[in-house]
Amino acid sequence: MKKIMVCIKRVVDYNVRVRVKPDGSGVALEGVKMSVNPFDEIALEEALRIKERGAGIEVLAVSIGVADTQQQLRTALAMGADRAILVQTEAAVEPLTAARTFLAVAKKENPDLIFLGKQAIDDDANQTGQMLAALWERPQATYASKVEIGEGNASVTREVDAGLETIEVDLPAVITVDLRLNEPRYVKLPDIMKAKKKPLDVTNFEALGVSAATLLKTVKTDPPAQRQKGVIVKDVNELVDALKKKGLL
Amino acid sequence: MNKILIVGEHDGKTLNPATAKCVTCAKNIGDGEVTIALFGADTAAVASQAAALAGVKTVLRVDRPENAHPLAAVFAPQLAALAADYSHVFGPSTSFGKDLMPRVAALLGVAQVSDLMAVEGPYKFRRPIYAGNAIITVEADPNIKLIATVRVASFEAAAGGGNASIEVKSVEAVLPTHTRYVGAKSGSTDRPDLQTARRVVSGGRALGSAENFKLLFSLADKLGAAVGASRAAVDAGYAANEMQVGQTGKIISPEVYFAFGISGAIQHLTGIKDARTIVAVNKDAEAPIFEIADIGLVGDLFQVVPELEKALATG
């Protein structure tokens, strides 16, 4: 194991309640706090723990996005990544484009492992890791809740609908991580200072030979249907009556 | 005409109900023909279940030993090869479908629409983003094969009574050996499946321990309900991961959902918005769950749950 690549997305912070613009053209993002996608933070944490258990392992953080995405990559460097690459673009990036971009970086960097979050909390697409694995013609282990690195392979326990499933994948491989894999570390002030000196390279689609063409068109954004507030009952008897009235008991 | 291929989900014995929901979604496309593909070591039993779904024309059985376990890396090249004859390829938005479908889309070099929740046209769909806080309408190019996962909570299951023809199909595809199934551990219970249960009893951090979750299991058994949990309860180790309901857990649509000691974070509400009736019991009258509950009871779950169980027993 020499190199681990971690893909990071800049998203609206987990605690922000997003609002749909009244004209239906999208969600209001002006002045909203942006953060590292929480699942990608878990992905990075796992890479760092493998690095700390081993020797001479480099952790590379890669992101695609606007110039300000450097902030999220600096956070990754402060957490402990060794260097970072930003593929800078103003364009909306579909998962297939993201996968093609990460593939182009992977072909240059030849990582032994690529970690990503299982989904980004903005578009909730849950596609990029699987697509990257397909294009790279390598194994995928999605929704990881436990990762054990062996000689040339990894044993990954996955959170699936029926419970937990374990698969073994040959390296190099793509692993997408679920919530309970680990708890990401807090960044300390000295680490933020140190991160400023770590290398952060900026490149773009053109240099990587990736087309940013989009295949899907978003024609409208609506707020979700709201549920009506119901009744408050005062005790269990009233609750049972209310359920019976609705034909639910 | 639209030709829609659905990848069926099963465990070798039983067809997962998510498949029947994909069929309903496919039928909403209109002017179409619906085919179900089944990958497995021996899909004879599940094929007859799939063939009985109303509106399905053909069931394709792709049986080979390598298909014994649902490995995306193994299924994807086969599904991608089958996809050549179809305009649309659907899979369920379950851990199985979410793992498999993007790999298929990438092999075909096309985009995927995730969590399709409503069909507005053969190439126009609605899907949730930002944990369901916004719903986008997306349009895809009709000249490009459409790959999608179907948000199962948004569709009723197709009825039975169908009589599709069953074909044994061999698929030319090179299967990788770089991914191997080791084993599974399921919290298998006799209770209904969380994603398709008509009734769900769910608990939050207020339960306080795994031991206390037994209160909910007992109530659930009286109701014939599945048991769910909030992320907080799962993270605290009170409940198993497969019980998690919400943005990153399961999205469910039962007839009635009982939330005990769940405050109602947005991410949790995302998972239950499609429930027909939501019942909330919480000590805190200000808990956000009460904003969306159809029936709310401000009270201590440790009193309410046993009382409710008793009330149910006496009818």
Q: For the terminal residues of chain A, how far apart are their CA atoms?
A: 58 Å
Secondary-structure element series of chain B: EHEHEHEHEEEEEEEEHEHEHEHEH
Output the strand order for the largest sheet of chain A.
9-8-7-10-6-1-4-5-11
State the oligomer.
Answer: heterodimer
Strand count of chain A: 13
Class of chain A in CATH? Alpha Beta
User: CATH-wise, what's the superfamily of chain A?
Assistant: HUPs
The average pLDDT of chain B is 95
Commentary on this structure:
The complex is a heterodimer of chains A (249) and B (315). In chain A, 29% of the residues lie in helices and 31% in strands. By secondary structure, chain A is α/β, with parallel strands linked by helices. Chain B has 315 residues and is α/β, with parallel strands linked by helices. Chain B has two domains: 167 residues, HUPs (Rossmann fold, 3-Layer(aba) Sandwich), CATH 3.40.50.620; 115 residues, TPP-binding domain (Rossmann fold).
Which labels suit this protein?
heterodimer, A: 249 residues, alpha/beta, Rossmann fold, 9-stranded mixed sheet, two-stranded antiparallel sheet, B: 315 residues, 2 domains, 7-stranded parallel sheet, 5-stranded parallel sheet, 9 helices, 27% helix
Secondary-structure topology with pairs:
The complex is a heterodimer of chains A (249) and B (315).
Chain A: E1 3-8, E2 10-12, E3 34-36, H1 38-53, E4 58-65, H2 69-79, E5 83-88, H3 95-109, E6 113-117, H4 128-136, E7 140-149, E8 153-160, E9 163-170, E10 173-177, H5 189-195, E11 200-203, H6 205-208, E12 216-222, E13 231-233, H7 236-245
Chain B: E1 2-7, H1 17-28, E2 32-40, H2 44-51, E3 56-63, H3 72-82, E4 88-92, H4 95-108, E5 112-116, E6 118-121, E7 124-129, E8 134-140, E9 146-150, E10 165-168, E11 179-186, E12 199-203, H5 213-223, E13 226-229, H6 231-235, E14 256-260, H7 266-272, E15 277-282, H8 289-292, E16 295-298, H9 301-313
Parallel strand pairs in B: 1-2, 1-4, 2-3, 3-10, 4-9, 5-9, 12-13, 12-14, 14-15, 15-16
Antiparallel strand pairs in B: 6-7, 7-8
Helix pairs in contact in B: 3-4, 5-9
